Amino acid sequence: MQFSIEREIFLKALARVQGIVEKRNTIPILSNVLIVAEQNEIVLTATDLEVGMRASYPAEVSKPGKVTVSARKLFEIIKELPEDRVSFQAKENCWIELSCGKALFNIVGLAADEFPYFPEVDQCRFLTLPSKVVSDMLEKTAFSMSTDESKYNLNGIFFQTLDVDGRQMLRLVATDGHRLALVQRELEDFKSEELAKGVIFPKKGVLELRKIAEEGESRIDLGFLENNAIIRKDTTTIVMRLIDGEFPDYNRVIPQDQEIRARIPRDTFFHALRRMAILSSEKSRGVKLSLTEGKLEISSSNPELGDAREDFEVDYAGQEIAIGFNARYLLDILQVQDADEISLQIRDNMSPGMIRPVDDDNFLAVVMPMRL
Fold this sequence. Notes:
Layout: E1 2-6, H1 7-17, E2 32-38, E3 41-47, E4 51-58, E5 60-63, E6 65-70, H2 71-80, E7 85-90, E8 95-100, E9 103-110, E10 127-129, H3 131-139, E11 156-164, E12 167-175, E13 179-186, H4 193-197, E14 199-202, H5 203-213, E15 220-225, E16 228-233, E17 236-241, E18 260-265, H6 266-277, E19 286-292, E20 295-302, E21 306-313, E22 321-326, H7 327-335, E23 341-346, E24 353-357, E25 363-367
Antiparallel strand pairs: 1-5, 1-7, 2-3, 2-6, 3-4, 4-17, 6-9, 7-8, 8-9, 10-15, 11-12, 11-14, 12-13, 13-25, 15-16, 16-17, 18-23, 19-20, 19-22, 20-21, 23-24, 24-25
Subunit structure: Forms a ring-shaped head-to-tail homodimer around DNA.
Domain DNA polymerase III beta sliding clamp C-terminal: 252-371
Organism: Geothermobacter ehrlichii
């Protein structure tokens, strides 16, 4: 096996698989990338048995073949090579010779036959989504995914299609038990049995989907094969095993009858929160929001550091109320908002708060209150 390839192309290809390869080294071959040279391209495949990626790149192939090599070490080598064409040759016993300019490396590989099977997805029926829509929806929900591995059914994003007032909507929901984010978009002729029931995309798969959604304007194909979601864009295919578990009934978490409502300038709120969070407790990140007619005061207190407060004008004419929230949770929500004004909705100081853009019914976030 022998080929040559532009360093920048090879570097980009290897960078994309770094998030996929197994880092715990439970099975050595999973920390490797499979490289297949054929005709005028090379095909790179990486998997950790939960999420897999395959992508092709142009190269000058003088001898077809396939081999696997450490994805991390190969990436580190290519990153340090000079700007030139890289020559790659697989020799006997899976040794690999890399040369670029006057640099020469001999590294150990593993036989391609040991690499896990990557499913053929050509027979899969695909639905098509605009990349920009996918990227925006993931940005507005990914921050709410749980990082607690024991809550495996919350370690991802719930995808579902449903009829909302006669419109076909794709809805994404994420929650970690302390906060919830929901976003939905209208899509024409988008029907899927799997999505009608609802499926949970795993966190690692979500992160890889988000990366390719942000690359270029090409549309994304989405399909399902057994218990896997198949994502395809240009020459890249991602296969991810769906989380086998029940997503909680999120509609029960979304509060109703919240009579206390304030319209707040997003930018002012965001920056005031960042300032007040500096003196909040390192552990709880708690800040207090106090609403009075026409004004919102944000305050924080830490016995070891001191206290701070700041107020600004808001559109509010209800009763006086004070409620505590985790500042980081509020900042995560505000950071993904495009609206100039957001609505903060509360029932009382012991109930969850809800934040949504003033002029957009397709996003909402729920945050549990804190005792301060």
